[in-house]
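Course assignment 3, question 2. Fill in each field.
Student: A.L.
Task: Predict the tertiary structure for the chain below.
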Amino acid sequence: MMENTNPALAKAQGDRHPCYLITVDTEGDNLWARPERPATANSRFLPRFQALCESYRLKPTYLTNFEMATCPIFREFGCDILKRGTGEIGMHLHAWDSPPLVPLTANDRRNHPYLIEYPEAVMRDKIAFMTDLLEETFGVKMTSHRAGRWGFNSAYAKILAEKGYLADCSVTPHVSWSQHSGDPMQKGGPDYSNFPELPYFMDLDDISKTGNSKLLEIPVTSMDVRPPLIHSIARRLAHESLPHRALNRLFPAICWLNPIQHGVKITLRVVERAAAERRICVQAFHSSEFMPGGSPRYPGDDDIEALYDDLHRVFEMASKNFKGATVTEFRSEFSGDASPSASSAQISAEIAVVGTRSAGATPAMVPGQNGRRAIPVDPGSNCPQPDVPVVVVAGTLNSLGVIRSLSFGRMPIYVVATTRSCAAGWSRFCTFVRVPSLEGRGLIDSLTELGSRLGHRPVLILTGDQCVKTVSTYRDEIETLYRISLPSAEVVHTLADKILFQMLAEREGFAVPRGIPLEATSDLSLLQHLTPPLVIKAADKAVVLDSPAERAVRANTLAEARTTIGRMLEHTPRVIVQEWIDGPDSEIFFALFSCDRHSNLIGIFSGRKLVCSPPEIGNTAVCVAAPEASAEMRALVLNFIARVGYRGLGSLEFKRDRRTGRLIIIEPTVGRTDWQEEIATLCGVNLPLITYWAELGRTTAEVNARPVNSVAWRSSIEYQVPPGVLLPGTRVIDGFFRCSDPVPAFYYYGLERFATRIVRRAARLFSSRRWDAATENR
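Answer field:
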């Protein structure tokens, strides 16, 4: 094997952290299947990968072929990363698909011939066409490249150098592609068995040797990481013998830096060894590998989630030992050039932004939609701010979903509650803080003390009506300590009061049930203006949370309504009575959303209830996404936001009127997350995390996630999904249990629910014995 002794490499490696390069062959979907016309659906899945890289300060280089360069979705994605300086666009050429199309075999789309198998004139035309296309599309000079199917030679290298390319990453050390045919009449791909492992400036006449050209070869990282004993045994076995082949199958001789190729454990060993040797790491992926069904290894959603789990582990280790760089940035550092030709500043200056966005404008806030995850995009920085914590108030199931959603941001998370006897308090993603109260001065004093201790002005996320009312009232005292996502105090007061909201809705023309407010039994005569069945609700829900009064009661007759109202007025000063909107629980819809400080919608998710507890008037027990109603609800939400000047987290609950088919607003949720908030995150719209980034002044871009119909959320295993209502393949996810965070479920099901059952049985037993004793004494 040839060794690299270039002194510039020693200088680059002498830095505190060597470079970690991520290269992505950006090409059509599942080209391993050799389709007649490649699709580009994988472009929708790249933002999620980009967001993962940015969270670890890594900067991918997307080596782009013809079909992706002409894909509008990828063009916009590529322009965005160039504008923000968080990645690079380079060239990747598939000879069989890249114009000008010159047939070489009987079926080029089936044989996938190497570019180096074509006449040199055709090679030159194809390279020129792709270079011009990419430069015109993205508005930057092409400086990095990888050959399709790793097929590279001296003629290819000379043409790249003539076109001004500065770096190539086609060499795979220790690997021969000679057995992988292209044109059946030729000798197959190149043999890189004796090529250097480390970067070197090429000799254009012999690309395996160091030369004086300006074209830097950056080989893909591959090395022998077998244990010394295995390595010693392998050296003593005949190369083609059965024992040698078996040993290589169990312990691969050459391992690439790729969890897809060799698994996460071996990949971590490669990273660890590279870190110990202070050498560059070059990782190679295919863009379609991040899409379910985009490659043979990852056919389904679960496979992709497993891949991302592996990538998190690899990137976490990489971020601790390496610094992220694009291919051209590394080339500049390697050569000692202080002004890289494709620097972020130059890219920002040169880029021609596509679509309707004007050049030089800050990217707009793009709301997450059903099936798409909104992620942070910061024009001024490549990485998140993990030092800014989040404080989540209350320890309910709602809070648990919020904590798990926020955990994707990897910031410190604190949950405040009055007792550790709550599921959220046991999540591994948060630190529990005990407070004396979740309302009034007790809460404000505790938040003041915690905020002063944490510093960094934590983002405050509220999950209950009582704490919303308290924080809204005392916000002036804690706004210097916390970033608070709340509407104005007047809006909070109006929306939290059902009578005031009814008046607002009627004034603004919102579709709500007919209703009347009642403050005394003397007002019962007003009920004659309504048509039963009716629903009676406390005007201020926070008032009844700690009282025996019901939150909402259905009355089928006026007589039932009078009785119910009299009972409720004993515990709450005001109630509202509305006409019942007929229909099952499955006709109840909800829109979860978040707005920034300027009342711009930054994230929205549309869902539908399947089961309520108690039925018809209770909390969400089982729910799913509702893409069929998303457009309708989005329009209603935008109108609502514009009329009230909303900001922060909130939601609207609707029910479809069977008579008119319209969605009627049942009630708003103001200033806090909703009970079923996690269903949005499970379907790809992480509203708590979107809100966190917005409070830090960051914008968001959309990331494609799993199909919205693949997940149903239920608050507890005691609730069963009605048969026949879910699409085939839909996974029902329990609100308490996660494999990655199991303790809340162990606490809730094993302790809280178990203890409750024991207490109830003991109470029944005690009551029964008292009854028996009383009977005997008669």
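Instructor remarks: The first strand starts at residue 19 and ends at 26. The first helix runs from residue 7 to 13.
Grade: pending
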